[in-house]
TrEMBL record:
Protein name according to UniProt: N-(5'-phosphoribosyl)anthranilate isomerase
Keyword Hydrolase attributed: no
GO terms under biological process: L-tryptophan biosynthetic process
The organism's taxonomic lineage, starting at the top: Bacteria, Bacillati, Bacillota, Clostridia, Peptostreptococcales
Top EC category: isomerase
E.C. code: 5.3.1.24
PANTHER family given in the database record: N-(5'-PHOSPHORIBOSYL)ANTHRANILATE ISOMERASE (PTHR42894)
HAMAP family: PRAI
Single GO term (MF): phosphoribosylanthranilate isomerase activity
UniProt organism field: Geosporobacter subterraneus DSM 17957
Length: 200
């Protein structure tokens, strides 16, 4: 079954929502974003999180020492690198690593072959923005991609398009942030609809 990651939790209410709805993963954004959390707030949120839900930290071109400090402090299960991190950088961690690739055209996939990571996350290329854009990429571009780890589909997913994304991309995991928000905040009903669609 396709697993689910809900990204960008930043309020205690968000934690209550996911504890009730039980996605497989949740994401805490440590990169610059309207969803950014710092180490101490993330720790406080995580104290209330159901232990069965895996914790993903989202980073963008951050020093390795800083990433490790946050990962230790929060007990992160997965590190998601969403910037221009090089293959060598991604190999330098003891934890599971997912690398995000921003898809624009066929050439966007050439770079992917240089990485040996546990997860390959496909997000939409948006000029001047590294993630959380709420925009989709042409999924057909990724139908035959070669990869040696998990495939994580991201970028503009929501309850009304996620089944089509699963049909075309056959991902191991679907990742959503903007698509389960209302007025910039996570919304319980949108999260529930998204999760129901994936699991129906
Ligand atoms: O969500 C963010 O604010 C964010 C900021 C910086 C890097 C990545 C970020 N989130 C990731 O973006 C994709 C797509 O999100 P969306 O569903 O299109 O809003 C997803 O992988 C998030 O983990």
């Amino acid at each position: 079954m396709t697993k689910i990651k809900i990204c960008g939790l930043k309020r205690k209410e968000d934690i209550q929502y996911v504890n009730q709805l039980q996605p497989d993963y949740v994401g805490f954004v440590f990169a610059k974003s309207s969803r950014q959390v710092d180490l101490s707030w993330a720790r406080e949120l995580i104290q209330g999180l159901d232990q069965h839900i895996k914790k993903v930290g989202i980073f963008q071109d951050m020093r390795k020492e800083a990433v490790n400090h946050i990962a230790e402090g929060c007990g992160l299960d997965v590190l998601q690198f969403h910037g221009d991190e090089e293959p060598e950088y991604c190999k330098a961690f003891q934890r599971e690593v997912w690398k995000a690739f921003r898809i624009k055209d066929d050439e966007s996939f050439i770079q992917m072959q240089q990485y040996a990571v546990a997860g390959y996350l496909l997000d939409t290329y948006t000029a001047g923005q590294y993630g959380g854009s709420g925009k989709t990429f042409p999924w057909e571009l990724a139908v035959n991609i070669k990869r040696t780890g998990l495939l994580i589909a991201a970028g503009g997913l929501h309850a009304d398009n996620v089944r089509e994304a699963i049909r075309i991309l056959k991902p191991d995991i679907v990742d959503v942030s903007s698509g389960v928000e209302k007025n910039g905040l996570k919304n319980f009903n949108k999260m529930r609809s998204f999760i129901e669609k994936v699991r129906e």
